[in-house]
Amino acid sequence: MMLTLGIDPLPSPRSRLLSFAASEIAARVHRYVGELLAGAVPKPLRLALPGGLDPGQRERLAAAAAALDASLPRLFTDFART
Hints:
Helices cover about 60% and strands about 0% of the residues. By secondary structure, the protein is an all-alpha fold. It has one domain. The chain starts with 12 loop residues before the first helix and ends with a helix. The mean pLDDT is about 80.
């Protein structure tokens, strides 16, 4: 309805909230990945990874980390559509 009234939907409160949430989640993901690759286990992941990463997990996470910046925006866009 905003478009039919000539109102620019951006930046709407919803888009600002989604943008803020996306940036917070992205920062957390980057921090957790960095900690895991450095050999530490972030507190929220300790139940899932009580012994840390095994060498194979560390290798796969390092490879995935390189693509994080490209994949996170797509993830957030898909999430916002639901």
